Structures
1.
Amino acid sequence: MGIRVSRRVVGIGAAVVALTSVVGGVAYSAGTAAIRTSTPRSERDVTNIDVLRQQLRNYYGDPLGSGTFGADSNYAREARSVAKAGQRWIAAQHHTRKTKAILLDVDDTSLVTWNYEIASNWAFNPATNADYVLGQKFPAVPGMVDLVKTAEREGYAVFFLTGRGAAQEQATLGNLTADGVGIDAGYPKPTSLPNGEDGLFTKPAPADYPTYLKQACAADPNGACTTIHYKSATRAHIESLGYDIVANFGDQYSDLRGGYADRTFKLPNPNYYLP
Ligand SMILES: [Mg+2]
């Protein structure tokens, strides 16, 4: 996922930082994204990674690692309960004079990538991942199609905002909605904006950034937007066109930080972390 491309970049950045601190004791350089966490004092402070993988398979109701998650798994239950909470919130909002909107991330917010986690043994690779994205192989996150359909019925505009690259836009739209290729998750079509944008925001290459991204990300490394800047600047852009983003759904904290939403909803995803 473009988002995962950034994960890969982040991984490299983190490795560089680690190496730097071993060699020179240098602190994090400005703008370097890395996962900040604790350092275990003992192996007893962490879960063995093979045991952890088994716990994740159990959580997804897929103890043998077939790649198909269980409809009754704890994962599915947890995702459905977030979708329900979103539905209750959306139904209760009548205050805004702007056009009400909901905004959703794609990977592991709207579509479940569990089959790819299993196939890749949790090791993201852009080439093998593209096979799943372009083949439209991801099923819907439990509860989320109902939520989006309900929002649409209640007059909400529907926007998707993903770190997947612009080259994956058509396949992403096909997987989310219905185009007869691979899996059709059955989401309503995203809402077209008054300026002609199609309501599914994929991440452009820096050379193709619209003005609002160029401005928001000028100080980011190489002028390439961090996930938080890319997503929050896009939400700001959407709101500048007359929408109120009443609810923002994401599986990563970087989907949710940076404002421009009345409320945020975190979908479960213990498989990867994107700063
Ligand atoms: Mg995601």
2.
Amino acid sequence: MDTPDTPDTPDPREPLSAELHRLRSLTSIKWTMHGHEVLPAWVADMDLPPAPVIVDAVQRLAARGDFGYNFDAARQLPGAFAAWQERRHGWRPDTGRLRLFCDVMQAVQTALWLATEPGDGVVIFTPVYPPFLSSVSSTGRRIVDCPLDPDAGWRLDPDRLASAIDERTRVVLLCSPHNPTGRIFTPDELAAVAELAERHDLVVISDEIWGDLAHPGASFRPFASLGPVAAARTFTVGAASKAFNVAGLRCAVAHVGDERIEAGLAALPDHLLGAVGSPGAEATLAAWTQGEAWLEATREHLAAQRNHLASRLSDELPEVGFALPEATYLAWLDPRPYGLGDDPARWLLEHARVALSSGPDFGLHGAGYARLNFATSREILDEILDRVVAAIASR
Ligand SMILES: Cc1ncc(COP(=O)(O)O)c(C=O)c1O
């Protein structure tokens, strides 16, 4: 009988580091989608173990067998979110306008659904997180594509935005900081969006899930903090899931600045959106009340990983286009000079045994690109890069 190649019985053909061994024991999609011969750097989960304060919070629930109806942590989340936003980003949201959701995309899609009618236009800044595209099309709304400018470091071009908006455009769907480019939009870029939103009476849905992962030297500004006028037409969504690596626990908080969405939410059937589970609420509460030191150490590690990636690319694959991300642990790579085709991630999976995210999934302007997740150990990032460099050299 074949011995299964499980993490508990390491494959003797390959010396596994303890870290790789641990990661291969995870049941998350990042580590189970492909075989053990592939190193995953695709979906936006980190390989770092979560903060001990979060593990403790969830373990305490489990140790007590405390799985009954439990809204205790959820009740504390609006206050914790407001205090966290104020301390980290200088924005004090009104707790009376905060609402919990089971995840960020549920909140985004709900706001989109309530703010628009079928056929209405929704501005997105491409390339962009693929569920933004599917959220607009699956709700029967219309994508108003406003590409970011690759030749200006992925800047948001206000003139391009002004000419993209038509008379049936109702929403600007902002990903801020931006996935996949890692851009933090400047106050000027955000102000231009706010000014156009005001002029055309648009709702701004601002997905700020990456807001806590700005790199040193960059500072993130919530859209609603531009001022009361902008806040009054904005629906902001935040979560601990990216910065604290707890995406599987499903919990998000939204600030409902826009009255139309507030009224739409109030009119929904009362149980339609469900409620956050207690592990997700406990984890998020622990993150925002006790997680700051862990987050600081994690941001340092991510910045070092980003800089290491940039230096290896410039030494070993100098033709790869890459603008240093100001936030996130994502690198949006343009390897077109190496001729890897429209979907370099597919080529790299086959030839380098590394799994990146496919550029074409990020919209029309994603062809030729791939997204690499560098939130892992230095050892694994180096192994990923060794494989990519070797595959490209021998193509
Ligand atoms: C911009 C953005 N929004 C939303 C999500 C997903 O959040 P959730 O799983 O809470 O829906 C991600 C995940 O990577 C993301 O990058």
